[in-house]
Write a structure and sequence with these properties.
This protein is an all-alpha fold. The protein has one domain: Methane Monooxygenase Hydroxylase, Chain G, domain 1, CATH 1.20.58. The protein is 62% helix and 0% strand. Helix 13 packs parallel to helix 17. About 2% of the residues have low confidence. InterPro entries: Trp/Indoleamine_2_3_dOase-like (IPR037217), Trp_2_3_dOase (IPR004981). Keywords: Dioxygenase, Oxidoreductase. One of its GO terms (biological process) is L-tryptophan catabolic process to kynurenine.
Length: 321
């Protein structure tokens, strides 16, 4: 093979690279010479990935349940990857910020539109049987989802709505004691914390508090206001943040609500969720009024937050029965 000028240039650049690190380029070329070619299955660790489903029961649809939740967590990891790039960018611009939020919105769009797999992709009879083997585990225990919330907004917006105004100037620790999701995992009969919640807090509380402090001035709401103060054009960014607000605080919880209604609503008595969560009041967006960016919505829009979506889902489900 002829050593073209392009090849010689690449070799010269490699030589400079390795010399700068005090390394011998020839040794690295030997390694390249003897190394096997990379395969698709090795690169993405396919065999390991496909071995990570371990159903607890013999019901076939449990494997669907497991895989969908694993896919969900991978999308959450993608979202957090974007959150980190935004928060740690040394010279953040509205353009970069907008592009990365668009990516997160694409991930959540994929999640919300694929949730039909959960709603219609399992036999109700199978689900109601295998779910009892999952106690006290619950999708409520997704730590990555909570980290996305912390990255997306001022921590005060995650405080239960009854305490938000009162704790607006409180410490992160005080706010965490009244974070909204703690009120969504109380025992229906006693009002005490469920085992699901106790496990969740034990595993993630330290991480959540550390991230909340780290993102105090680098969450999306704060960064948006910083760019606005600099006079940057944040029109497109505002549009994407509104979409994110709806995806995370309306569409995603509503997808779960739709699934819960399908599988857990039983007239006249509702079936408790596996974690004992009071899902009827926890999941509907109109009850929680979680809004990441109140400064991007009108008072009327916030007053009607989630109402239309919840009503449309209920009407659709009722018309099918």
């Amino acid at each position: 093979m002829e050593l073209t000028p392009q090849i010689k240039e690449k070799i010269s650049l490699l030589q400079e690279k390795y010399e700068a690190m005090g390394q011998d380029m020839v040794s690295y070329l030997d390694g390249l010479l003897y190394a096997d070619f990379l395969t698709y299955w090795d690169y993405i660790h396919l065999d390991t990935l496909l071995s990570l489903q371990s159903p607890k029961t013999p019901f076939p649809d449990e494997e669907i349940f497991i895989m969908y939740h694993q896919i969900t967590e991978l999308y959450f990891k993608l979202s957090l990857h974007e959150c980190k790039q935004i928060a740690q960018h040394e010279n953040l611009t509205a353009k970069f910020f907008t592009e990365r939020v668009k990516r997160i919105n694409a991930y959540f769009n994929a999640l919300t539109t694929s949730f039909e797999v959960m709603v219609n992709g399992m036999e109700k009879e199978q689900f109601l049987k295998f779910r009892m083997s999952l106690l006290p585990a619950s999708g409520f225990q997704s730590g990555q989802y909570r980290m996305i919330e912390i990255s997306a907004t001022d921590f005060t917006q995650l405080v239960d709505k009854s305490k938000r105004e009162e704790l607006s100037n409180a410490s992160i620790e005080e706010k965490f004691e009244h974070i909204y999701w703690k009120f969504g995992a109380t025992e229906l009969s006693s009002g005490k914390q469920t085992l699901t919640l106790k496990q969740f807090i034990s595993k993630y509380a330290t991480q959540f508090l550390a991230l909340a402090k780290e993102r105090e001035h680098s969450n999306f709401a704060s960064l948006y206001k910083q760019l606005e103060a600099k006079g940057e054009d944040i029109t497109l960014l505002a549009e994407e943040l509104r979409k994110l607000d709806l995806y995370v605080n309306v569409e995603w919880p509503l997808s779960h609500y739709k699934s819960a209604v399908r599988y857990l609503e039983k007239d006249p008595v509702d079936i408790a969720a596996t974690g004992g969560t009071n899902w009827q009041k926890y999941l509907p967006p109109r009850f929680q009024k979680r809004i990441f960016y109140p400064f991007l919505w009108t008072e009327e829009q916030m007053e009607e937050w989630g109402k239309g979506w919840v009503l449309s889902v209920l009407q659709t489900l009722k018309s099918k029965h």
